[in-house]
Amino acid sequence: MIVRSLKDIIGTDRDVQAETWCSRRFVLAGDRVGFSLHETILYAGTRTRMWYANHIEAVYCVEGEGELLDEETGETHRIEPGVMYLLDKHDHHEFHAITDVRTVCVFNPPVTGRETHDENGAYPLLTEEDA
Length: 131
Prior knowledge:
By secondary structure, the chain is mostly beta strands. The chain is about 5% helix and about 45% strand. A hairpin with a 3-residue loop joins strand 1 and strand 2 (about 20-25).
């Protein structure tokens, strides 16, 4: 059994900071359970372009307001508490955080915690063996 607290993650290497967001990684590839689980906060007033070429991501909003743009169709979706979106087709997307937006995210395959977004907004496909 694994039990982790947010207060134990903040300020560690599982607390990843970026210009437009921060991500607290509760479950990573090294836990060997087949997915990773993150709390991500997207900062108010920011826009983040992303494309997970190598991962499927499910995102559940628990706090805040934002807009999700599907860059391929031009369709926008209002994101607020209780809304989930699933990037099941490796969708190119942009997230506009109107307020700070707190989400819970699940990645498959799991991320290792060492990934950073490349110029396309994608994470490379890393495994624990790449460490």
